[in-house]
Design brief:
There is one protein chain. By secondary structure, the chain is mainly β. Helix content is 0%, strand content 63%. The chain is built from no helices and eleven strands. Strands 2, 4, 5, 6, 9, 10 and 11 form a seven-stranded mixed β-sheet that branches. The chain has a four-stranded antiparallel β-sheet with strand order 1-3-8-7, with no helix packed on it. Strand 9 and strand 10 form a beta hairpin. The chain is elongated, with a radius of gyration of 14 Å.
């Protein structure tokens, strides 16, 4: 069984910072791409940032240099450092991991989500 577990969400004032963490664990041999998506009420789930095991990073257009994604491949963990947060960043943030399940092969896993609320 594979688990993707997020942590680090919470309430922050506009202009503040948060760091999200996500760890993949279980019956997996390695993780290819790890990333973060977010979904605000009534809106679609959007890419925030993703990072391949080789170091290629992609960001959503709205990030505008405010967020940085990083990962520790040995720990199968990805981090999202968010600075200059705005009320519009309020959403549930979901971790996504494309991982090689030992039994099933390449699979995509989602975490349960962590709430980020930015107050004005």
């Amino acid at each position: 069984q594979v688990q993707v577990v997020e942590s680090g969400g919470g309430l922050v004032q506009a202009g503040g910072s948060l760091r999200l963490s996500c760890a993949a664990a279980g019956n997996i041999s390695s993780v290819n791409v790890m990333g973060w998506y977010r979904q605000a009420p009534g809106k679609e789930r959007d890419l925030v940032a993703r990072l391949s095991s080789s170091g290629r990073a992609d960001y959503g257009d709205f990030v505008k240099g405010r967020f940085t994604i990083s990962r520790d491949n040995a720990k199968k963990t990805v981090y999202l450092h968010m600075n200059s947060l705005e009320p519009e960043d309020t959403a549930v943030y979901y971790c996504n991991a494309e991982a090689y399940d030992i039994a099933l092969g390449l699979r995509v896993y989602w975490g349960q989500g962590t709430q980020v609320t930015v107050s004005s």
